[in-house]
Amino acid sequence: MRWSHFVGQVGELQKDGSLRVSVTDTGIGIAARDIPKAMSTFGQVDGALDRRFEGTGLGLPLVRSLAELHDGGFEIESEVGVGTKATIWFPDKRVVGGR
Fold first, then answer.
1. What does the angle CA 45 – CA 43 – CA 78 come to, to the nearest 5 degrees?
2. How many structural domains are present in the chain?
3. Burial state string for 40-77 with b = 16 or more CB within 10 A and e = fewer than 16
4. In the chain, N or C: fewer CB atoms in 10 Å?
5. Does 20 fall in a domain?
């Protein structure tokens, strides 16, 4: 998201009262084989000391943990050279105004 422009809606209340929020970027993407590593605590897809992009490897695991604490979930879909789609969801019992 840091290197992309906003182009549309990110959140949608589902018919069952749950909430899904998706954000898609047009960045460098993540190879499918590297997504589990990126989702692990302190996981760095590029472990080189001179890597191009900063980060501690805590962001994605933290988002997943917070979603799960609210009985929700978090997933990443990505393709190298195309971008990444991150989706977080919460059940209706955790949504103000949900069912």
1. 50
2. 1
3. eeebebeeeeeeeeeeebeebbeebeebeeeebebebe
4. C
5. yes
Q: Which two tokens stand for residue 75?
A: 């997933």
Q: Which two tokens stand for residue 49?
A: 């000391």
Q: Is the model's pLDDT at 68 over the cut of 70?
A: yes
Kindly report the CATH number assigned to the domain that includes residue 85: 3.30.565.10
> For residue 3, is it within any domain?
no
Q: Which of 45, 61, 62 is nearest to 53 (CA)?
A: 45
1 belongs to a structural domain: no
User: pTM surpassing 0.70?
Assistant: yes
